[in-house]
Amino acid sequence: MESVKEVIKRYGNSKDNLIQIMLELQQLSGKNYLPDAWVKEAAEELGMPLSKVYGVITFYAMFSTEPRGKYVIEVCKSGPCHVSGSENIVHILEKELGIKPGETTADGLFTLELSSCFGACDIAPAVKIGENVHGNLTADSLKDLIISYREGLTYGNN
Amino acid sequence: METTKILSARFGKIRPDSVEEYVAAGGYEGLKKAIGMQHLDVIEEIKKANLFGRGGAAYPTGIKWEQAYAIKKGPKYMVCNADEGEPGTFKDKHIMAEDPFQLIEGMTIGAYLMGATEGFIYIRGEYMGIQRIVRSAIENAKKAGYLGKNILGAGFDFDLKVVSGAGAYVCGENTALVESIEGKPGRPRQKPPYIKNCGLYQMPTILNNVETYSCIPWIVKDGGEAFSALGTDFSGGTKLMCLSGNVAKRGVYEIPFGTTLRELIYTIGGGIPNGKKLKFVHLGGSSGACFPESLLDTKICYNDLKKNGLSLGSGAVLVVDDSSCPVDYLKAVMEFFEEESCGKCTPCREGNQRMVEILEKLTEGKGTMEDIKKLKSLAQTMKTTSFCGLGQSAPVPVITLIKYFEAEFIAHTEGKCPAGKCKMNGKGVK
Amino acid sequence: MDMINLKIDGLDVSVPKDTTILQAAKQLNIDIPTLCYLKGINEVGSCRVCVVEVEGWRGLHPACVTKVSEGLVVKTATKTVREARQNILELIMANHNRECLSCARNTNCELQKLCNDAGIGDTTFEKKADRGSIDCSGSVVRDPSKCVLCGRCVSVCSNTQNVGVISYAHRGAHTSVTTPYEVELAGLECINCGQCIKVCPVGALQEKDATERVWSALENPDLHVVVQTAPAVRVALGEEFGMPVGTNVEGKMVTALKRLGFVKVFDTNFSADLTIMEEGTELINRINNGGKLPMITSCSPGWIKFCEHNYHEFLENLSTCKSPQQMFGAVAKSYYPQKAGVDPKKVFVVSVMPCTAKKYEADREEMKVDGLRDIDAVITTRELAKMIKQARIEFEKLPDSCYDSILGASTGAGVIFGNTGGVMEAALRTVADILTGKDLKEIEYTAVRGMEGIREATVNISGMDLKVAIVNGTGNAAKLLDKIKAGEANYHFIEVMACPGGCINGGGQPIIMDKSKTEEVKQKRIEGIYAIDKSRAKRKSHENPEIKALYDEYLGKPGEHKSHKLLHTHYTAR
Ligand SMILES: Cc1cc2nc3c(=O)[nH]c(=O)nc-3n(C[C@H](O)[C@H](O)[C@H](O)COP(=O)(O)O)c2cc1C
Ligand code: SF4
Ligand code: SF4
Ligand code: SF4
Ligand code: FES
Ligand code: FES
After folding, report:
1. Average pLDDT of every residue of chain C
2. What is this structure's pTM?
3. Crossing angle for the helix pair B39-48 and B100-114, to the nearest 10 degrees
């Protein structure tokens, strides 16, 4: 696996690239988060106060400072999805996964999150799992979707 | 309805990252033509086109470019706003996923005029797959000599880079976006100075929306007047509209300006399904106005909309049927702003939070008339005192929904939700 | 000069270009309220408390960052403005932990005053945003529940001090001002300078209170409690009792301390003189024996910690002298008990300091001799005022008293330690006499005085050009050290004080409520200090009779074995 230094080198050692570097590191973590030690190392490499780096990674919704599941399921709760029944989607997922938004399943597979619109309003209600968007969800299709991720059938690794 | 397609003409017909197919379908004619023209003549065409910024603020692009051109300081940067965070908006996604070269060409024409050698396309982090398409398109354009050094042998250089957002709606605001490209939290900057003078890396910056840039090649190729003629006297060209919500055929539609909202929703969109009736339309995204049936015959035209107190925003049209409760809906909208406010200024950071608090009370049947009064007062304060467009426009849905559905808000203070949506655990305070 | 004409609330005013509406209004005696604004430090326009109406402009505009232009018609108190202001203040207040009565800033809180002036009633909002929990780990206590997110501390810490341990984090309703990962300040690079406390409009930042510790020592019959007062305290303490800024309250302060029950009231000016003896000798030795130059002063514990974190390559340049506070403690627990016939273990040394970093310094592991800590408790100027108020002493009416012997005599050189340039000047007075072997009459080194962040001078002493620099504020120190590192500058001797203006503006000094007066207040406190210097019969450290006695009867010579053990220290790369 690439080290923090290597990632920084690839993007160019400049504060300007902080967000791009952090996105990359989060991908590399395998747990969809930014390990503290990496963040500290990056701050030092880039010559930035840690407080400023922390300010950046807590500002943007895509970053997490806590380990998350292999699949982060984001349920859109913005207006268009709301009027198409996104609340229902959240309830079903809570029941199906046995967790509340912000939590991760015990097997480390799923983290449930609520998110702002990700541009899939034409297929609302929609969820985003990793990079993949799934829309026009019904109770049944949603359950099937979870099963397919559990079994590693759909989009197993990406 | 068969109308001229400008932006969506090649959608689905070419491989999005193939320069050859783009060129074969008429691409890069605009750039070639621009290179043979006087700079100011190109800008004149854009002015004649009556093209207004498609990102939401509807600033006339020709004027923006004329001003930027006049600025002598350099280097200048070309920046594309592909943050597309306004709920209900997914048009830029389609442009980038299906025909990104028109965007690239548009930016290249701009770079040629402005003498900019570097450009950035800031694409929201949620569009990872699309970032890959655009990166690939840029690579291919470079290989084919449409980007990079000595473009088309005309002796000008231009490099384009994709920069990813990381999940922040506010980064769609000009100065926040620039901050974000610089690797910082997306908190807006004090204006003036405006980014046209002092933007990215404190240098003059030309910033436009994806759709705006994408109109440029056609305008240069076919002329500003032809573009303008497609629309109304006031609003030139066509517009990508995003239909979502309780409407039969959701999706992106390219329509000429002058089409009415009713035509869009009923003729193009197939109307409201499941035998429901229209309750209201939320136009322009979450920061736009909500209005009922009575305004549906308004033409989609910056001027006509303005006359009715509306604005087109990003082109999002959210259709909401009568099973929805305006109070409940508004709460969802304000939760979005509460979350997405950058937190810099008091009215927006605190105001959105308190509006959600009040709306929660109302949906639980614990709200009072005083609360509704407070909502209105807070809305005015946010609108007039917020630091940036986010906080200034976040209260627009509050103001408009209360304006058109005040009775339903009042009913909530009496423990009743006429739409039967809110749980009303508090059963009214009276 | 280009003058701009405008109208504010119907009154005509003409101001220079680039003036803000806020400043222009001030000329008309219209005091537009502000909260986040701090001239030159935090001009971010974020709180929106200062919004005004401008004819023909959409919305309201922040007066603090909006520049005037010709023909503007501004209105500062219309119904719209008043309603907006009230709403904004209510919004701020609703998320503020309103425990005014038990807050250290009760009666000098800017938010309290703003709400009071604007006539804010109660709020109906109930929820409280979670902005983090209280942090009492260091000399500076942070209570995020009171933070109004003005950002002043962030700017001061990052820009003025170049430390940057606090920053904005999160966003929207979750926005907070905090440390990275919300950890305790004490574990970070915080230098305890307390400049953040000084700019905080509310009680979200305070010093760690030690008054209870002092009270219980005073009440403990087994202890022999003595106190030292730093140079800068005497020109600021009076402010806490409504006396004019810069008033020298030395005599009243001594009386008050005696009434509080201290057995002996001593003076840090005394140990400042002692510091000069040691530091002057060290400088001469370094110059004569090819020691590490430039030598850099070590009296400011904020600066020391800054250097230990950020400039390891300069640690050997730091004078090995302990600061006057610590030198005092070392002597008060060795020489003094011997002379006074008390058990050194029973001596309890309290410092009254203008500084929060002194609390940290006193607690540093190495600051002890033969197992006895140099200093037992440190209180700030503000805390002393609090104790005097708790004892219901009518400070303004007190008669004057004199410091006690044998650690109470001082010279003009000792007192000027209290402001930027003072340590340098005090050192030069002594070094010049030693090098020339004369009793020089020209002792006012005006070239090293002033308020600029970085000053340099070349002083000719007996044929040698001594190149010196004076910096105040660690941000300026960083700039200077970077220049030295780059080979763009070099000196023999550098004075660094961590706080802008020096100790007179230390993190423990009285809060200046009206921030627009900050510079003026600093200036007046400095004038107070120089006035004391002028009034002293003796103005050179080596002429201090009690210092002479200390060396003759106890220490031997400066820099020799005993002095070294008691009065010198070492530094750690952190
Ligand atoms: C909070 C906020 C979010 C915005 N989001 C976007 C966006 O996602 N995309 C966009 O093009 N413009 C957005 N804008 C508008 C831009 O600030 C800017 O006006 C626009 O990108 C300029 O380009 P145009 O003239 O081509 O429209 C946003 C504005 C605000 C205040
Ligand atoms: S209005 Fe204020 S808090 Fe809201 S996004 Fe803009 S600057 Fe940030
Ligand atoms: S005490 Fe000084 S260094 Fe520490 S947080 Fe405050 S300003 Fe920063
Ligand atoms: S701690 Fe004080 S100075 Fe810092 S942001 Fe909060 S209120 Fe402002
Ligand atoms: S509203 Fe859910 S994806 Fe846009
Ligand atoms: S004082 Fe002007 S915005 Fe805060």
Report:
1. 96
2. 0.96
3. 130
Give the residue range(s) of CATH 3.30.70.20 domains in chain C. 93-207
pLDDT in tens, C310-332: 999 999 999 999 999 999 999 99
* pLDDT band (50, 70, 90) for residue A90: very high
Q: Between 3.40.50.720, 3.30.70.20, 3.40.30.10, 3.90.550.10, what CATH number should domain C93-207 receive? A: 3.30.70.20
Does the active-site annotation cover C271? no
Shortest distance, CA C154 to any CA of chain B (angstroms): 13
pLDDT 10s digits, B202-228: 999 999 999 999 999 999 999 999 999
Which residues, in sequence order, are CB contacts of C55 under 8 Å at separation 6+?
Answer: C72, C73, C74, C75
Mean pLDDT to the nearest integer, B293-311 = 97
Q: Please identify among residues 9-38 of chain A the ones whose CB lies closer than 8 Å to any CB of chain C.
A: 36
Output the pLDDT for position A153. 61
CB contact under 8 A, A79 and B243: no
Q: Where in chain C is the domain with CATH 3.10.20.740?
A: 3-77
CA of B59 to the centre of ligand 1 (A): 10
The pLDDT of residue A154 is 56
- The reply to whether CATH 1.20.1440.230 applies to domain B326-421 is yes
Q: Which part of chain B is CATH 3.40.50.11540?
A: 19-229
HSE-CB for C103 with a 13 A CA cutoff = 24
CA B250 – CA B269 distance, rounded (Å): 7
Ligand 3 neighbour C195 (Cβ under 6 A): yes
* Probe site for chain B from A33, A60, A74, A123 (most B CB atoms < 10 A): A60
Give the distance from residue A98's alpha carbon to the nearest chain C alpha carbon, in angstroms: 26
Residues lining ligand 4, Cβ inside 6 A: C 147-153, 177, 199-202, 204-205
- B96 vs B81: CA distance, rounded Å: 12
Q: Which of B386, B390, B258 is nearest to B333 (CA)?
A: B390
Domains within chain A, CATH numbers bracketed:
2-59 (no CATH), 71-150 (3.40.30.10)
Which residues of chain C does CATH 3.40.50.1780 include? Answer: 211-567
Q: What is the pLDDT of residue B377?
A: 97
User: Which of A60, A117, A131 lies closest to B168 in CB terms?
Assistant: A60
C-alpha dihedral over C213, C216, C221, C227, to 10 degrees?
Answer: 40
Answer yes or no: C366 catalytic.
yes
What distance in angstroms lies between residue A81's CA and the mean position of ligand 5's atoms? 5
Residue A158 is predicted with a pLDDT of 37
User: Chains meeting C at 3+ CB pairs closer than 8 A?
Assistant: A, B
AA identity, residue B340: E
Query: By CA distance, what is B339's nearest residue in A?
Result: A116
C211-567: CATH topology is Rossmann fold (3.40.50)
Residue C301, pLDDT above cutoff 50: yes
What does the longest C-alpha to C-alpha distance in chain C come to? Answer: 80
Give tens-digit pLDDT for B28-50.
Answer: 999 999 999 999 999 999 999 99
Kindly give the number of the ligand 2 atom that is closest to the alpha carbon of B386.
1
Do the beta carbons of residue C410 and residue C384 sit within 8 Å?
no
Q: Which fold has domain B238-321?
A: Ubiquitin-like (UB roll) (3.10.20)
pLDDT at position A2, please?
Answer: 80
CATH topology of domain C3-77: Ubiquitin-like (UB roll) (3.10.20)
Give the tens place of pLDDT for each residue, C397-456.
999 999 999 999 999 999 999 999 999 999 999 999 999 999 999 999 999 999 999 999
Residues A49, C165 contacting (CB under 8 angstroms)? yes
CB contact under 8 A, B90 and A120: yes
- Cα dihedral B120, B121, B124, B126, rounded to 10, equals -120
Q: Which of C139, C298, C300, C319 is catalytic?
A: C319
Q: Where in chain B is the domain with CATH 3.10.20.600?
A: 238-321
How far is ligand 5, taken at its centre, from the CA of residue B134, in Å? 22
Residues spanned by CATH 1.20.1440.230 within chain B? 326-421
Which of B187, B349, B357 comes nearest C125 by C-beta?
A: B357
The answer regarding whether domain B19-229 maps to CATH 3.40.50.11540 reads yes
Question: Of B10, B40, B48, nearest to B227 (Cα)?
Answer: B48
As a whole-number percent, the residues of chain B with pLDDT over 90 amount to 97
A–B interface: beta-carbon pairs under 8 A: 132
